[in-house]
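#structure-requests
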Amino acid sequence: QVQLVESGGGLVQAGGSLRLSCAASRRAISAYAVAWFRQAPGKEREFVSAISTSGTITYYADSVKGRFTISRDNAKNTVYLQMNSLKPEDTAVYYCAARRDTTSQAPAAYSYWGQGTQVTVSS
């Protein structure tokens, strides 16, 4: 089984940037499609972005399109989420998730999850 660990979260002012990392261990992340989800207090977990195993196909939620960029470095066994122009409504715990096969926007489709990293955007 692949294990995932997120990092890079923190407190940032609106308009600022953060880069989240999702580091994999035990298995090569190159075999997995990876997605980022987020969950704010009192809300359901929502899809943010996903990337195919090769990195050639990416998907974004409308709310982050043009501001967030997902990428992967299979040699480093890591997937990244670059977040620019952050807004207070981006405040949430961010999770990375992995699955074999193609990407999906449904949380239930992912078998492997990290523990999450908190992102807080102040106004």
